[in-house]
Design a protein that fits this description.
Length: 304
């Protein structure tokens, strides 16, 4: 599977990184590409801080693997952050990998940028050599047996190599609690519906195994040590830029499509009004729109 980060939580944030809602694995990732890219591009300041945190301890990696890379926004940031490294973007969707290759070419990194299409985690066995840094942004939670997936990732690390997973954090916020119509607290109710949908998605995955989502403990169980976690903030205050506004509009549109039936009629009506381009109180025009999100990275090292 590919998980496209963002996608995710939160909505399950969109997309591959998702901010959209949480969805199922019959999801058409290629169709999601524009949303995944827009989210990842908007979240670039957060990812850059996460990568610079990793770079403090991961020095001069030879091979960096992005497992569940989606359209390659983060993989290309790795290419920038580590100019001496070879990058391999791994994903279940070849159309998304085509976008990743095109992005690497645009930024002049094509000569050290490769892609590998196939299902995680098994496809990692096709890597030519072990990774010095293996990154998985919101991809592990799309795999039935997360513990086994982390163990497979750990096996693909060089001795002293680092596995970093972006999982958890906080759901994004776009609007004040009271937006002037509807029942206050809409986003909290959307979060609750998305948590339930996410649990159903996990339960329906092939080979689904329940696991306590204690990521440092899961990394330790995979045979890694020196676990560390850090949360990175994306804080784009009001008034929102056009790009932030477009992202929020796309994220809430997806929320309405994916979990609309899980909300009550009043909340559906509130979302419809928010998404109406002609409504001055909608997200297209509101002056109080913002983007505030927090993503957590958990990292650990394969013993030498």
């Amino acid at each position: 599977m590919a998980h496209h980060h963002e996608h995710e939580h939160h909505t399950h944030q969109q997309g591959h990184g998702h901010g959209h809602g949480h969805v199922h694995d019959d999801i058409d990732w290629a169709e999601m590409a524009p949303l995944l890219e827009a989210q990842a591009e908007l979240f670039t300041p957060l990812y850059e801080r996460a990568l610079s945190w990793l770079a403090k301890e991961v020095t001069e990696p030879g091979l960096i693997v992005d497992a569940g890379s989606g359209p390659g926004v983060i993989a290309c940031l790795f290419a920038e952050t580590f100019p001496g490294a070879r990058i391999v973007a791994v994903d279940g969707s070849e159309p998304l990998l085509q976008r990743a290759r095109a992005r690497a070419e645009r930024q002049g990194a094509a000569d050290r940028f490769g892609t590998l299409a196939g299902e995680l985690p098994d496809v990692l066995g096709e890597l030519d050599y072990p990774a010095d840094l293996l990154w998985a942004s919101r991809s592990v939670h799309h795999l039935g047996d997360q513990r086994a997936a982390l163990a497979a990732c750990a096996e693909r690390l060089a001795p002293g190599g680092t596995l970093a997973v972006m999982e958890g954090g906080l759901p994004a916020r776009f609007l004040p609690r009271d937006i002037g119509f509807g029942r206050p607290g809409l986003q909290a109710r959307v979060d609750a519906a998305e948590e339930d949908r996410f649990s159903r998605m996990r339960a329906e995955l092939p080979g689904s195994v329940a696991a306590v989502e204690d990521w440092p403990a899961l990394l330790t169980a995979a045979g890694l040590h020196h676990t560390r976690s850090r949360t990175f903030l994306l804080d784009l205050p009001a008034p929102a830029t056009d790009r932030a506004r477009a992202y929020v509009t796309a994220a809430l549109t997806r929320t309405r499509e994916v979990i609309g039936e899980d909300l009550d009629a009043d909340d559906r009506a509130t979302l419809d009004r928010l998404l109406d381009p002609g409504d001055p109180a909608g997200v297209h025009h509101r002056p109080d729109l913002f983007v505030l999100a927090a993503h957590t990275v958990h990292a650990a090292v394969r013993p030498v």
